[in-house]
Design brief:
Keywords: Kinase, Transferase. It comes from Microbacterium tenebrionis. The protein is an alpha/beta fold. The protein has 2 domains: 3-40 and 274-366, Glycerate kinase, domain 1 (Rossmann fold), CATH 3.40.50.10350; 49-266, Glycerate kinase, domain 2. Helix content is 36%, strand content 20%. It is built from 14 helices and 13 strands. The strands form 3 sheets. Strands 3-4-5-6-9-10 form a 6-stranded mixed beta sheet, with helices on both faces. The chain has a 5-stranded parallel beta sheet with strand order 2-1-11-12-13. A two-stranded antiparallel sheet has the order 7-8. The protein is globular. The two termini are 13 Å apart.
Length: 367
Amino acid sequence: MTTVVMAPDSFKGTISAAEAARALADGWRRIDPAAVILSRPMADGGEGTVDAFVTAVPGAQRMPIAVDGPAGTPTDTSWLLLPPTPDSPAGTAVIDIGSTSGIEMLDELRPWDADTSGFGQAIVAALDHGVSRLVLGIGSSASTDGGAGLLSVLGARFLDESGAPVAPGARGLLDVAAVDLTGLRPIPDAVVLTDVTNPLTGDRGAAAVFGPQKGFAADADIRRLDRSLARLAGLIGVDPSLPGAGAAGGAGAALMRCGARIEPGAAEVSRLIGLADSVTGADVVITGEGSYDGQSGDGKVPSYVAGIAAAAGARAAVVAGRIAPEADTGLFAAAVSLTDLAGSAEESLGEPARWLRAAGADLARRL
């Protein structure tokens, strides 16, 4: 009897990690109905982080909340409450920026005005509930506000030269002359999940690298924003060169100021959902993501899961929407591109669950 662990990341913008794992399992069972299949959807701090914990942690409970989304309008979402443990006697809150202040929540980009207030509101809701620990996923953010939005919700005040509050978002950062942190609410033990190691400023900083993704088109605007982020770092007392400070448009730096520690997202999610224990004794481990390319070996979910599988003596396979020519698939016993299976990217994107089932069946035949 074959034991298979399904541990994909989300296929960004098309299907969640949990749904992908389910589709892969359905496909495998078509060929090998007697297989023991364990679903352990993965994440690296971005889209699907909450879903990974819902699937893997018994007793996890979604806590509904309304927040001010990145478009500035009320949005219904939730954070996740994990049951108490000896290390977290009042429970752990899992909150991701993607479902509270995420770029996928926008119909059109708002580079100057989107902010992280909704993320901060979810953090406050969890603190008000009394949790002992926070797990914060900060992938897929919509803004480059340096975390000013979330810090404002936690009690910080961002003021211009006249002492008046500045506007939300990156627009307000241009005018920040002083920051009052005397009312900043303390947070308990907090870990920040991200696969980004960029500093806050400079050529690899939040403005230069991620600004264009948020909608900044002009080089002059990116330079202005970079200078504003540097000034903000000085005002809140964070070293802008720290790895991860530039994650989520500078939200990483803001959370550092609150005492949170930055951790590699895939490794921490793996630890928290007990992936290594699930893989022990497995024959095959299947992982995946939307695009497997030259960056996928740099701490992303597929490469991390492949390492877990190798340590347990299991064969690993990767399934991706597309596999780039330069991608290193040497870690895997098999690699499947949904684009190749479907015949085109349009077909695979249109029906991802269908082609993931096909991929699961293909791997069952081959492995």
